[in-house]
Amino acid sequence: LIELENVVKSFGEHRAVDNVSLSIRKGEKVVIIGPSGSGKSTLLRTINCLEPMDSGTMRFAGKPAGYVQRGSELVPDKPRNICALRTRIGMVFQQFNLFPHMSVEQNVMEGPVTVLGESKANARATAMDMLGKVGMAEFADRYPASLSGGQKQRVAIARALAMKPDLMLFDEPTSALDPELVGEVFDAIKQLAVDGMTMVIVTHNMGFAREVADTVIFMENGSFLAKGSPGDFFQRQCEDPRVQSFIDKIF
Ligand code: ATP
Ligand code: MG
C-alpha cells in the first residue's frame, strides 16, 4: 500500500529520519518502538505529508506521493494533490485535538462534510457507525470537556475513521492516558486490526505489539536498528544489546 525509499528528513544538521526504507502491504500492522528523539513521530509526519522530506521517495497505492519527479529533481507535488493523499491517511495523536466547541457527533462529522463534501445526513450516519465501532455511540451528544481521556481518544479514532482512510497512523495514542484507560483505547485499535485496517502504531506497549503487530520496528537515531515479526523480534532480534536494554527499560 505504501512504500518509502531512502527517506531523509533533517532539522538543521540533525537527521531525524535517516535513509529509511519501508514497505507496508495492505492490512499490515506495523508497530514502531524506540527511544525518545529517535524519529518515530517525524517518520509518521513524513508519511502523512505533514513534514516535507528532504530526499527519498514515497509511493502510495502505486503512485508517487507528495513529490513528483521533474527531470532529475524531486519537487513537491501540488498542494491539492498532497491534500488528496492526506484524506486517505488517518492520524491519531497523543493529544486528542478534538474541537472543544463541537459535540462528539459534530467532531466526527466535520471532516466528511467540509473536506469530502458529504451531505449532513450521510456524514451523520457514518459518524454514528464509527462511534459505534469504538463504543462511543451513546456519547454522541456530549462535548469533549465532559469525556474521560480514553473516551476522547476513542472519539478521535472515530473521527479519523469517518474519512474512510486506507491507512491509519497512531502516534503514542495511549501515552497521555491514565493506566486504567489504556485498555479501552487499545481494544478499539485491536478491533480495527480485526477489520483489516492497515496501521502504523508508535507505542511502547509491548503486550499490544506482541498481540497485534505483524511487524515490529525498533528505531534509533533516525534509522531502523531491528525489524521483524513479533516472534522474531522478542527473541532473536533482541539479542542486539541496544534493543534489549531498551525493552528491559520499558517493561
Ligand atoms: P518521542 O518518543 O519523544 O516522541 P520521537 O521518536 O517521536 O520521540 P521525533 O519527535 O521524531 O522523535 O524527533 C526526532 C528528532 O528530531 C529529535 O531530535 C527532535 O528534537 C527533532 N525534531 C523533531 N521535530 C522538530 C522540529 N519541528 N524542529 C526541529 N527539530 C525537530
Ligand atoms: Mg514522538
List key phrases describing it.
single chain, 251 residues, alpha/beta, six-stranded mixed β-sheet, four-stranded antiparallel β-sheet, 9 helices, 37% helix, 27% strand, globular, binds adenosine-5'-triphosphate, binds magnesium ion
Account of the protein in words:
This protein is an alpha/beta fold. Helix content is 37%, strand content 27%. The protein has nine helices and twelve strands. The chain is globular, with a radius of gyration of 18 Å. The model has no long low-confidence stretch (mean pLDDT 88). Bound molecules: adenosine-5'-triphosphate and magnesium ion. Adenosine-5'-triphosphate binds at residues 11, 14, 16, 34, 36-42. Adenosine-5'-triphosphate (ATP) binds next to strand 2 and helix 1.
Q: How many H/I helices?
A: 9
- Say which molecules are bound, naming each kind only once: adenosine-5'-triphosphate, magnesium ion
Q: What fraction of the residues are assigned to beta strands by DSSP?
A: 25-35%
Overall pLDDT score:
88
Q: Main beta sheet, described?
A: 6 strands, mixed
Task: Indicate the overall shape.
Answer: globular
Biggest sheet: strand arrangement: 8-9-10-3-11-12
Give the % helix.
25-40%
Q: Distance between termini? A: 32 Å
Number of strands: 12
Category from helices, strands and their pairing = alpha/beta
Radius of gyration based on Cα positions: 18 Å
Write down the secondary-structure element order: EEEHEEEEHEHHHEHEHEEHH
* Unreliable segments of 5+ consecutive residues: none
Provide a short characterization of the protein structure.
The protein is an alpha/beta fold and 251 residues long.
